[in-house]
Amino acid sequence: MAEQNSLPVQQWLTDSEPLTPSLYDTAAVALYPGPAREACIKWLIEHRNKDGSWGDAVSWQDRYACTYATALALLEAGYSTLAEDALNQLPVIAGTDNMMETLAFGGLIGSLDRYSANRFGAQTQHSAPVAYCITDEARKWKALKQWHAFWDPRLSTAGFIGECVYDDPSIDLRKFMNIFGATANGSITNSPGASAFTLLACRQRGEEEPATLRSYVESLNPYHKPISVLDQIPHFVTAWVLMYLPENSALPDSPPVDALRQTIFHSTTLGLVQAAGDTTIPGDIDTTAAGILGLRIPREQRQDLLNRIDFMFDTPRYLTFAYERNPSSTTNIHVAAAWPDNPHLDIVLDWLEAELERSFGMIHCKWHISPYYATAELVRLFAPMCKPAALRMVARASAFLLESQRNDGGWGWHAQSTAEETAYSLMALYSLRDHQTPHYVASKESIDSAIQRAATCLSRLPDNEFPRLWIGKSLYCVKPIVRALKALALHRVSLVSDSVREI
Q1: For a Cys-Cys bond, which of 3, 55, 309, 414 suits 63, CB 3.0-4.6 Å?
Q2: Phi, psi of 189 (to 5 degrees)
Q3: Cα separation of 288 and 185, whole Å?
Q4: In 121-233, where does DSSP find H-type helix?
């Protein structure tokens, strides 16, 4: 269709651009005594914060894990003064709550503790919140090892949190590397951190280091290509870009779209889509639901898909991955929107509504630093629903979005408006405008005014700023999605331009 042809959809879907750099993973690679260490150490020193820490200030867990891992890497490289300064930052960094916990935070810190004890004979003292996360993640790892699907890469996160195998004699390392090794590049689940720690585990035990895994780790150089939490996540990019395309535009005919569709219907994946494509990272409910929404799979086919993944429902919500410690709100928002006939829908909506009320009209997600992501997704996807609970949430969440719009017309949870957060919120307001009912407290005029101000702000925001808002082992940004969000949100302006011009 003509309106889609004006958008560079194919470029977003085929863009293999890596994720933004991960300081934690770069430091983990630097722990391994190979040719990658020198470049990683140099890069880490260049990216030190002014206060002597490493990582992003918007998440104390990110700064804590990045600073701790970097301190140990600096010790290995002989920078003892810098390392001691970094270790002294840890008590200052540690927060007082578990909000915005980076993925497997406690497991990473526990692995770093074991490494520190083995290599340097040092016992690091942690604050109560950090110690709690370490203990809780250790319980999860123990339960995961006892699970019947621990060795099934379609379901198990064991490979992605492969740091946990370090100093764990109960793990058959050879079996672990054979099962969770990615054939394309020799890594462990495309994760630099997991790959480096698996090699370190081999070295600690005196076991042979696989040539393919060693070659992968030794090839990592932050000056040649960012060392990210994952090498790339093609299905994630495809699903999210398609999900935000205008409803009246045709889906692009391209290999990434075909690959996503095949994955959803391919029986050997258990119905779960792997965000990172054909690798040993397990499939997850969020990418699956987003893919179904993006591909606009007919409603009658969705029930069959739901039945295949019903084992991921754990009252009162869906888990993104098995043995998930803290559930994801946006995973459940996407599931509720993807399967309106879901027999668990009322239970999921009740849980989401309680989460929304607990946070006074906004909702946080474990995968994203900003509440505007989850809150906007709730408004965007629940506005067309006929469920009373969904409409109550839309009224509450949309009021939060309108009230928290910044003076410049955009949205940003921290210092300033960002293109990503503004685009999410603008997409939500478009949906609110298109599906307005008496349940909504906002008038058409107030919505149109907010849209106009947001569109003006978004058009002025630079195209080359990518704040790290997504939560992984450390924070990251998916650049193609940010570019697509901005372009698609501004594209929607033309669809309501007549009404907006009347203001």
Answers
A1: 55
A2: 50, 35
A3: 25
A4: 128-146, 173-180, 192-205, 211-218
Residue type, 183: T
* Half-sphere exposure at residue 214, Cβ-oriented, CA atoms within 13 angstroms: 12
Nearest alpha-carbon partner for 429 in 419, 414, 413, 440? 440
pTM, rounded to two decimals: 0.94
Residue type, 431: S
Question: Containing H/E element for 314?
Answer: strand 313-314
* Contact partners, residue 491, CB within 8 Å, separation at least 6: 3, 6, 7, 246
pLDDT of residue 306: 78
**Which residue, 452, 413, 457, is CA-closest to 430?**
452
pLDDT digits 0-9 by tens, 32-42 = 999 999 999 99
The CA distances from residue 408 to 273, 325, 412, 458, in Å, are 38, 38, 10, 10
Q: Which helix (H) or strand (E) holds 470?
A: strand 470-471
Q: Are 369 and 334 in contact (CB under 8 A)?
A: no
The contacts found for 13-17 with CB under 8 angstroms, 24 or more apart, are 13/237, 13/238, 13/241, 13/252, 13/254, 13/256, 13/257, 13/480, 14/254, 14/255, 14/256, 15/237, 15/479, 15/480, 16/232, 16/234, 17/479, 17/480
Residues 124 and 111: beta-carbon distance below 8 Å: no
CA dist 7 and 12 (Å) reads 10
The phi-psi region of residue 287 (left if phi > 0; otherwise alpha if psi is between -120 and 50; otherwise beta) is alpha
Buried residues in 168-180 as b, exposed as e (16+ CB within 10 A): eeebebeebbebb
Residue-level pLDDT at 102? 73
Reported as a pLDDT band with limits 50, 70 and 90, residue 292 is very high
Three-class SS string for 61-110? HHHHHHHHHHHHHHHHCCCHHHHHHHHHHHHHHCCCCCCCCCCCHHHHHH
Of the candidates 274, 36, 285, the one whose C-alpha atom is nearest the C-alpha of residue 159 is 274
More confident site: 249 or 269:
249
